[in-house]
Amino acid sequence: MLFDDSASLSRVCTERLGEKAGQQFAAMARRGFQLVRPTDNAPATGQCRLGGVALLEPGTTWPEQSGVPLSLHAVLDTDALAAWLGDELPVRPGLLNFFYLDPDLPYEEYRKLDAIGPAAYCVIPADPARAVETQAPVPARRYPAVPLHAAELTMLPDCWDVEDEDVEFDKEQHWGAASLILSEMGDLDGNTAGSHCAFGWPDTSYTLKVTSREDDGPAVHLLQLAEDADLGWGWGDAGTLYFTIPVRAFTTGDFRQATAKIHCC
Question: Which CATH code, of 3.40.50.2000, 3.40.50.300, 1.10.287.3510, 2.30.320.10, is assigned to 2-263?
């Protein structure tokens, strides 16, 4: 659910969910970005981009699985995103490089690899002052570089990322908090589907909870990559690739704990 400002978000939540539940749901809002191609009125945001070369510190080893290099899919420039994220960015990791196993590897080679385990993905931070352009080794697929404009938004979670303890609801009318959100906010739901996004909340559906829970709450959403015909990548039938990280790891800047999931129909 996307909103241009926090005032309208709070108003809509209160009008639809009531005073208490509305305030509880509004408190779950996170700041994030919709990642789009730049225009004259919306220039590229820092060094944010899809594809292209990685921006890594000298001496950084290119990630691989069983000798097969992962593909660089995106770079986020958190210095350029920091002003909007504010306290929601507790560390300044600089550049974040997002790698994933190329889904279009030859079948015989692909079937020998773990396409869903931790060796299939990687998020590597880099100091912008030290980062150098690093070409992917053969046979990693090299996608063309596409600069990105990060459009600032305030996001609410999909109903399936809300737990019963998050929002007060009438147990005689609803089987759970998700039921309340779905019935009262449903026409605003899922409107980041099919797009690239960073931070905030991911688009999800009833078949997948992207932001797993821990003691500190839902995991932090880092990046959502949809199918992109121009770049020639896809994640199965109407698929989306999500990168998340536990809250504690994000707070300490330990991006080795970032995880990735593909969801498709």
Answer: 2.30.320.10
pLDDT tens digits, one per residue of 158-206: 888 888 888 998 888 998 888 988 888 877 654 566 789 999 988 765 4
Domain range summary for the chain, segments of one domain joined by +: 2-263
Sheet holding 121-126, edge to edge: 121-126, 95-100, 71-77, 49-50, 146-147
Most confident of 46-50, 169-173, 223-227, 257-261: 46-50
The pair of three-digit structure tokens given for residue 188, joined into one six-digit string: 């605003």
3-state SS class at 40: coil
Reduce the DSSP state of residue 184 to 3 states and report it: helix
Instruction: Give start and end residues of each alpha helix (H) in the chain.
Output: 6-17, 19-26, 78-85, 107-110, 177-185, 247-252
* pLDDT tens-digit readout, 101-147: 876 665 456 566 666 677 889 999 999 999 999 999 887 888 999 99
Cα–Cα dist 169/155, whole Å: 21
Q: What is the DSSP letter of 176?
A: S
Please give the Cα distance from 139 to 79 (Å, whole number). 31
User: Alpha-carbon distance 213 to 153, whole Å?
Assistant: 23
